[in-house]
Amino acid sequence: MAHQAPPAVEAEGIVKRFGPTLALDGVRLTVAPGEAHALVGRNGAGKSTLVGVLTGLHRPDAGTVTFGGEPAPAFGSTAAWQSKVACVYQKSMVVPDLTVAENLFLNRFETGRPGGRLISWPRLRRRAAELLAEYGVSVDPTARAKDLPVEQRQFVEIAKALSFGARLIILDEPTAQLDARGIQRLFGKLRELQSQGVAFLFISHHLQEVYELCTTVTVYRDARHVLSAPVAALAKDDLVAAMTGEATSGTAAWHAPASKVRKDAEPVLRTEGLALDGEFDPLDLEVRPGEVVGLAGATASGNTALGETLAGLRKATAGRITVRGRAVRPGSVPHALDAGIGYIPEDRHLQGLVLDRSVAENATLTVADQLGPWGTVLPSRTREFARSMIASLDIKTQGPQQKVSGLSGGNQQKVVVARALARGPSALIAVRPTAGVDVKSKDALLGVVRRVADEGSAAVIISDELDDLRVCDRVLALFHGRVVATFGSGWSDRELVAAMEGVGERE
Ligand SMILES: Nc1ncnc2c1ncn2[C@@H]1O[C@H](COP(=O)(O)OP(=O)(O)OP(=O)(O)O)[C@@H](O)[C@H]1O
């Protein structure tokens, strides 16, 4: 019998509780050397908890983990874990103000000569350059980490992990902040490393990426292992059925149905000559009651900056914004809120949530004045609103009183959405609203945005995700700060992607 190399990682019977929550209920996972293995499941299924166990961050209540056939290091010995496995998170872990070279050798600085106390910078830079070259990563070692694009920061982290000796890299939603080309470059690099025997555990809600990159997929549902199978043998509908526990009636993407846009009505949201120097050119936009408008564009298109300007986070350099005919004071979040603008930010950690507060409090942070002044907020009404949001957005939580810090990433995102809806906004601005949200919740969440519009508000979805844009009545494609194309409902993926990439501009 041919000798088989032991798995890059093997986990058996893993149990993990957080207080009353059973996050993992005896799950298993085996990743072969050089394999690209996907781990998928709905929000709250237990994926991140498993990553915590595999990286030595969480101590499991039961179960065993081995790397290359050897028992996992003792809990708490960080350096030993680093030599086995590393996780590249959506939010990069590199220190933003340090250079690439410093990040690569963080906590293992070597001095220039034996007994010397000074760090030899030229030597450090040289070592960093060699290390990056070894893994084929072309990044300037003297650049500050914060000046690098997300993609290059991820490459630096991967190179760092490999230099510690790790042969398994976990990627937790690595493509969330990359545009189409960045994703292709990342996948190219991963394939190259795979051929050198490095194994990857890939966590993603983008099932098409799972099909593109991975050979094996494991599904968890409600803290349990459901299946592990070759990707090629599993149809997408069957994969979704395994994740949700329900038979699917086809996961075909849908376009906005017959529109309820009140074309003769006055626009709810209007911009006139709105511009932000260096980000987007003067834009006249009208969004009518019942209308969902998509602003499609890749990372540098200016669409996110436009959303931030509408929300008052950035101050326009020219032009004006009106909501139901009333001018909105530029660059002020409170005024934007008062004018009826609801905002779902892209970065829920920086702009979204108070992790130490409950789901109910977070969902109602902007409506405290409506429910009663702070201190006299009627808890019953706060809870009532939170309960309705938990149901309509399918938030997996123990209840309205649970702290947001105890929710999974995707469920935290849904709380951000709940908060934006709490005031019953006249104009809802949503930036990549389904980032990190599972396939089934995605439909629910986009359905909620659609419903807000159907009830007479205006909605704007800012995204490069085609599924987000399909619910729109009209999509404007931005490229380098300019609207390069406008589509009604029913566009083809190919033409919209081409427009976002600036190919074949049309009016
Ligand atoms: N620190 C914590 N305290 C309490 N409960 C937690 C904690 N971390 C996770 N949980 C709970 O454990 C369960 C699994 O969460 P986990 O983050 O592993 O899910 P996930 O599959 O990664 O979801 P997502 O796709 O949303 O990221 C959830 O019910 C979550 O609320």
Percentage of helical residues? 25-40%
- Please list the strands of the largest sheet in the order they lie side by side: 6-7-8-3-9-10
Q: What ligands are attached or bound here?
A: adenosine-5'-triphosphate
The number of helical segments is: 18
Kindly provide the name of the CATH class of the largest domain: Alpha Beta
Outline: globular
Short structural summary:
The chain is α/β, with parallel strands linked by helices and 507 residues long.
Explain this structure.
- The chain has 18 helices and 20 strands.
- The protein has helices at residues 47-54, 78-82, 100-104, 121-134, 150-163, 180-194, 207-213, 236-244, 303-310, 333-338, 348-351, 359-363, 368-371, 379-392, 409-421, 439-454, 466-470, 493-500, and strands at residues 9-18, 21-31, 36-40, 62-67, 70-71, 85-88, 168-172, 199-203, 216-221, 224-230, 269-276, 280-287, 292-296, 318-323, 326-327, 341-344, 427-431, 458-463, 474-479, 482-488.
- The chain has a 6-stranded mixed beta sheet with strand order 6-7-8-3-9-10, sandwiched between helices. Strands 16-17-18-13-19-20 form a 6-stranded mixed beta sheet, with helices on both faces.
- The chain is globular and about 75 Å long.
- Bound molecules: adenosine-5'-triphosphate.
- Adenosine-5'-triphosphate (ATP) is lined by residues 18, 21, 23, 41, 43-49, 396, 406-411, 438.
- It comes from Streptomyces pratisoli.
- This is Sugar ABC transporter ATP-binding protein.
- Keywords: ATP-binding, Nucleotide-binding.
